[in-house]
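Listing S7. Sequence submitted for prediction.
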Amino acid sequence: MLTCSKCGENRPEMFYPSAKRSSWCKVCQREAVRDGRYRKLGVTREEYLAALHGQLGCCEICGKQEQPVKNGVRGLHLDHDHKTGKRRGILCSNCNQVLGRFKDDPALFQSAINYITKYE
């Protein structure tokens, strides 16, 4: 058992990426990374959680909720416009990546809709 220097919890060694490199447990490290992402987008963790609560904890596009995975939770992401930096809603990874790959272009989305409905 090791004691995390951030939260003070005693956790098994498997909760530390490397006992030699870090004195913070994986839980605290993930929180620090998330907090850094929030700061980069100009929001606090509390603002993110309030927005997530406003969306009932789901992706604004598809409605998918956070998914538990090995060693934690696959979270939802705060989406933003890459041109303006303006924050938008909270999305799952798939929806967030689709927007990026389609370069936020409504004409490209409409073309994809037309393609899909053509073969229904």
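Caption to Listing S7: primary sequence and predicted structure tokens for the chain studied. The chain has four helices and six strands. Strands lie at 2-3, 10-11, 67-69, 72-74, 77-80, 87-91.
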